[in-house]
UniProtKB/TrEMBL annotation:
Pfam families: Pirin. This is RmlC-like cupin domain-containing protein. It comes from Lasiosphaeris hirsuta. Belongs to the pirin family. Gene3D superfamilies: Jelly Rolls (2.60.120.10). Residues 95-212 form the Pirin N-terminal domain.
Length: 361
């Protein structure tokens, strides 16, 4: 009992000291934490920068240098997705047709090219990389029950609704749009539309990706959307371009008209599907969060494509894997991933690499 009273008295005194000196103790704790953080930062910085004895960083550049290296180090710490199955789809395995006015590559079965191994991937049905000669193009043709979008890589492509006559279009609109680098034109085929896509430029070819996705419902109301996505943003990180219609499968007519996407600033698509694009500098690593935080489906598939934009000088490595290095024109099937997984894409070529990500349920 005597020991208990002594221990209890000591405890009361200790509480009293803490209460009356809490500010001082807090200050002491913060000072100690700052000292430890400074020591750790100094050690880490020394390991990262490793300056040569004859090299000195000017004081005004020191802060920026440390920030840049810290960001790079953080990105490089992305852990490989050991559970992911990554299968390269080489450019040489794509369907190819050179029709003079059209030079086209098919990542998936299309037109008269069929390969049972490449029929679809989740909601992704078509990925064509097309080059169309000047004063040439696709005359008026119908579409129905597909989500169809064109991603312009270079040149100029004119979209014209079938009801609009050449010379009487007025200004740029969803029914008439002259697209250039960075523009994305999107069509919900739904119950049926007809349009033309033409390169009306007199000298330069147009290079673009045409992509089709399977919608979550048939018989939708046809609709067009056209947005621009700047290269300067794509050089910072993957930029979301398409995301699911926020109202979902049960959207009302009013919600369809508003057409609010799940990710602000993107084009809404009638599918559990996200598209993004990035331009990655040599040595840099971009990270893609599977599902982009908006999917309702845990199990995902991701298709990565490297367009042929740099004369064969760009290359990327996916998930730090030596057997997942892609050249221009290559793609990769990434399966057995889940929403929230972080997928790394590293640029390892001579020049920056343009990369398109197609994320589907």
């Amino acid at each position: 009992m005597k020991r208990f009273i002594i221990a209890f008295s000591f405890f009361v005194v200790l509480i009293s000291i803490i209460y009356n000196n809490s500010a001082a103790l807090k200050s002491l704790f913060q000072s100690s934490s700052l000292l430890v953080t400074t020591l750790l930062t100094s050690t880490t910085t020394a390991k990262i920068t490793s300056p040569s004895p004859n090299t000195q960083t000017p004081p005004h550049m020191l802060k920026d240098t440390l920030v840049k290296k810290t960001i790079t180090t953080a990105v490089n710490m992305t852990k490989p997705l050991l559970h992911a199955k990554i299968t390269p789809h080489r450019s040489s395995a794509r369907g190819h047709g050179d029709h003079g006015w059209l030079n086209t590559y098919h990542s998936f079965s299309f037109a008269d090219w069929y390969n049972p191994r490449f029929s679809s991937f989740g909601a992704l049905r078509v990925l064509n990389e097309d080059r169309v000669a000047p004063n040439s193009g696709f005359p008026t043709h119908p579409h129905s029950n597909f989500e169809i979008f064109s991603y312009i890589l270079s040149g100029e492509l004119t979209h014209r609704d079938s009801m609009l006559k050449k010379g009487a279009e007025g200004g740029q609109s969803d029914r008439f749009f002259r697209m250039r680098r960075g523009d994305v034109q999107f069509t919900t085929g739904g119950t049926g539309i007809a349009h033309s896509e033409f390169n009306e430029h007199t000298k330069d070819p147009v290079h673009f990706l045409q992509i089709w996705a399977i919608p979550w419902a048939r018989g939708l109301t046809p609709r067009y959307h056209t947005h621009h996505f700047a290269d300067e943003d794509k050089r910072k990180a993957f930029v979301p371009i398409l995301s699911p219609l926020k109202a979902g499968v049960e959207a009302t007519a009013a919600e369809e008209k508003v057409a609010e996407p799940a990710i602000e600033g993107t084009i809404p698509i009638h599918a559990d599907f996200v598209m993004a694009a990035g331009i990655i500098a040599p040595g840099a690593v971009f990270e893609w969060r599977v599902g982009a935080g908006v999917t309702q489906t845990l199990k995902r598939k991701v298709y990565v494509h490297v367009p042929m934009t740099k004369g064969g000088k760009s290359r990327v490595r996916i998930d730090e894997r030596e057997d997942a290095i892609l050249q221009e024109g290559d793609g990769a099937f990434i399966d057995a991933v889940q929403a929230g997984d972080k997928l790394s894409v590293e640029s390892i070529g001579e020049v920056e690499a343009e990369v398109v990500v197609l994320d589907t349920a």
